[in-house]
Amino acid sequence: MEKSKVLVVGGTGFLGRRIVSASLSQGHPTYVLQRPEIGLDIDKVQMLLAFKKQGAHLVEGSFSDLESLVRAVKRVDVVICPMSGVHIRSHNILLQLQLVEAIKIAGNIKRFLPSEFGFDPPRMGHALEPGRVTFDDKMVVRKAIQDAKIPFTYVCGAGIAGYVAGNLSQLGTLVPPKEKVLIYGDGNAKVSVVDEDDIAAYTIKTIDDPRTLNKTLYLRPPENELSQKQLVEMWENLIGKKLEHISISEEDFLASMKGMDFAGQAGAGHFYHMFYEGALTNFEIGKEGEEASKLYPEVKYTRMDEYLKLYT
């Protein structure tokens, strides 16, 4: 079967660049949207040129120019949009409504994968302010997709390893602590933690797979469903040292959010749902979804003890 042509919108971002690489490595004709708004960001320009060297096609288009988006979309079969919904970086979820409109006008797309990759938004109606805006915005985009009858796949369910594992789930840092570690509650809530490159690999696997059409793919590889305590223990075994464990109660954690700025509160709220509620893993996958590692056992996903070795 001929492989689908893929357009990645947000291809220079944290997940986007990995999705471009996965698409190329899995043999898909790969197009990357080059936006004029990139301006003088030389790192992004050079990343785009590196993709071009690897065989990707650069396609000009802007969210402020609907016709340019339509032209870009008409060149491909599948659109993937891993735009940031993380407030510490940027929050652009609703920009995708322009992309949905372009896909609707173009009329040729057989699959759209919008920016998801974390919590499953329909399960987050109870989420704390202000972080719930991420889920509310994603639901607005989902409604637009479904109202336009655009075929879709939603990729959900992962705590991204770089934000959750490498720092032993500590807020405000991306590297592991050296002496003491904050433990959320009893530290036993299970979190699905997935390497960023594996997220990209699974995402690309879905696009020609009829089993994931109009479904949610959950990233919950069984050996990576871990508690915070298990992550900390893995790290302690790697470095041969026991850290001081400081338990923070649910009440104290919520109280600590009050002094944070908007981005900090949003991120802390997501950590709350992850580590106090176990919101990534506290449900059974129903008929609306599939689990990635079961569908694609050929993806040899990175176990977290291996991932943590990078930080030693």
TrEMBL record:
List UniProt keywords, sorted A-Z: NADP, Oxidoreductase
The record's Gene3D superfamilies line, in alphabetical order, gives: NAD(P)-binding Rossmann-like Domain, UDP-galactose 4-epimerase, domain 1
Q: Name one GO molecular function term.
A: pinoresinol reductase activity
Residue stretches making up the NmrA-like domain: 2-308
Tell me the InterPro entries matching this sequence. Answer: NAD(P)-bd_dom_sf, NmrA-like, NmrA-type/Isoflavone_red_sf, PCBER-like
Sorted alphabetically, the Gene Ontology BP terms of this entry are: lignan biosynthetic process
The UniProt entry, under SUPFAM superfamilies, shows:
NAD(P)-binding Rossmann-fold domains
Q: Which family does it belong to?
A: Belongs to the NmrA-type oxidoreductase family. Isoflavone reductase subfamily.
Tell me the protein's name. Answer: Isoflavone reductase homolog
Species of origin reads Prunus yedoensis var. nudiflora
